[in-house]
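To the team - protoporphyrin IX containing FE complex, inputs and output below.
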Amino acid sequence: MSTPVTSNPAQEESTVDHSKIKVSPEEMEAYDQSGRKPVLLGFFIAVVWLLIGTVLGDLSSFKFDRPDLLTEQAYLTFGRIRPAHLNVMVYGWASTAMFSVSLWLMPRLCRTPLRWGNLAVIGILVWTVGLGVGIALLLAGHGDGLEWLELDRQWADPLLVIGAAMVGASVWKTLAARNVHHLYVSIWYVAASYPWFLIIFLAGNMPFYKGVESAAVNWFYAHNALGLWLTTINLGLIYYLLPKIIGRPIYSYWLSLVGFWGLALFYALNGMHHLIGGPLPSWMIATSITASIMMIVPVVAVGINQHMTVVGRFGAMRYSPALTLAVIAAMSYTAVSLQGILTALVSVNRITHFTHWTIAHSHLGLYMFVTLSLFGGMYYILPRVLKKEWPSRRLVRAHILLVGGGMVLYIVALGIGGVLQGLSLLAPGEGFEASVSSAKPWLLLRSVSAVIISAGHLVFAYHAYLLAFTSRNSLTRHPPFYELKPVLVKKRVP
Ligand code: HEM
Ligand code: HEM
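Output:
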C-alpha cells in the first residue's frame, strides 16, 4: 500500500533540523494537532473572506470598464466597494490565514504544544465579528475615510485589537513555554509581528490627528501594516517552508539576521514615500526616500539567503505545490521590493503616482508574494492538521496556473497602462481625458485577468471543501504527491 504524504514527518525531520533537536513523528503530529481547532477555524474563515473579496475586487475592476454598472444602490458604488475589497482581502483573507499560519508554526518551532489555543479560537472569532461589522458599516456609508483605516473606529476597530491580542497572547505563551534554546528565524518574524501590529494599529486609529498630520499617521500605519505585519509573517512562513520541503538547512544564519534587523530598522521610516509631492516637511519625505533605498540591504539579504537555500533543487517544485508557491512568493518579495524602491525615487514617482502602476505594485506584493505564500502554506499545513492528502493533483495545477497566470496578466497590464497614463498626465498638450483613454485597453485586460483569477479561487475553495469533507481512506489510497522524497532522499525510510 502506498504511503500517504502526510505520514512523512519522520523523513522531514531527519533531513531538516532547525533547532538541533530531533523530534519523533508522533511528537510532531502532537504539535500539529495541538493547534487543530484555531488553525482550521482561521483557514476556513479566511477562504470565505477570499471569495467575498474576490467578488468585490471583480466588481471594482468591471466598474472601470463600465462606470454605470450597478450604481443605483449606494452600497454598490465604487467608493464603497473598493475599500470593502481592500479591507476584506487584507484583514479578512490574509490576516486570518496568517493567524492560522502563526498558530501552526509556533508549536513546531518551539517544540511544545500550542498554549491558550481556546483563547486563540475566541480571538479569531472576535476579529471576524469586528471585521464583519466594519465591512457592513463601510458598505452602509460609515467609514473613517482614511485608506487602510476605513473600518469604523468605534464599533469595529476595538474588536480587531482585542481579537489580534488574544491570538498574539497564544503565540507568545507558546514561545514562553518553548523547549528549544535556539530561536529559528521564522519565530522572530512571527512573534515580533503581533506587538508590531497592535502598536501601529492603535497608533493609526487614534482620533486626535488633524489635516496633514492625519495623512502622515495614516501612511505610517498603512506602510507598516504591509512591512511589519503582512510581510513579516509571510517571510517567516517562507523561511520555514523552503528548507523544510527540500531537506536542507537555511543557507546563512547571518543573512537571516541582516534581513530581519534591516527590515525592523528601515521599514518603519518608509511610510512618507506614499506622500511624495504632498504638503509635508521635505525632511520627512527625504528620510522616507533614503530609508526606502536602504531597504535594499534586508531585501537583498533575504533574496540571497532564500535563493541559495533552494539553488540546485528547483526541479523539486514539480513534486510539491507548497514549494512551488513558496519559491514564486519569495521571488515576488524581491521583485516587489525592488519595484517599490524604484517607485520611491522622485523622478519615477512623478510619473507613476496617481496611476494604475501603484495598483500593479500593490498586487505584485499582496498577491504574488503574500497570497501565494499563504496558498503554499495551506497546501502544506492542511494535510498535516487534517491527516489526509489533497485529493486532486489536477485541481492543484489548475489553481496555481489560473491564479499565477491571471495575476501576471493583471500586473503586466496595469504596469504598462499605468506608465502610459502617467506620461499622458504629464504631457502639457494632452487633456485629462487622453490619460483615461490611454489606460482603457489595459484596464479591460485587467478585468479579463480578474475573471481568470476568480476561477482559480473557486477551484481552490472547491478543492479545500473536498479535502475537508471527503473521507480519509478514499483519499489516502492514491496520494497525489510524494513531495520530494523520491528524488531527494536516497535512503528510503520505512
Ligand atoms: C481576484 C483577485 C483580485 C482582483 C480582481 C482585484 C482587483 C482590485 C481592484 C479593481 C482594485 C481597485 C484599483 C483602483 O482603485 O484603481 C484593487 C485594489 C486593491 N486590492 Fe485587489 N484585487 C484582487 C485581489 C486582491 C488581494 C488577494 C489582495 C490582498 C491580499 C488585494 C488587495 C488590494 C489592495 C490593498 C488594493 C488597494 C491598492 C492601492 O490603493 O494601491 N487585492 N484590487
Ligand atoms: C523595499 C520595499 C518597498 C518599497 C520601497 C515600496 C515602495 C512603495 C511606494 C513608494 C509606494 C507608493 C506609490 C505611490 O503612491 O506613488 C508603495 C505603495 C504600495 N506598496 Fe510598496 N514598497 C515596498 C514593498 C512592498 C511590499 C513587500 C508590499 C506588499 C507586501 C507592498 C505593497 C504596497 C501597496 C499595497 C501599496 C499601495 C498602498 C495604497 O496606496 O493603498 N510594497 N510602495
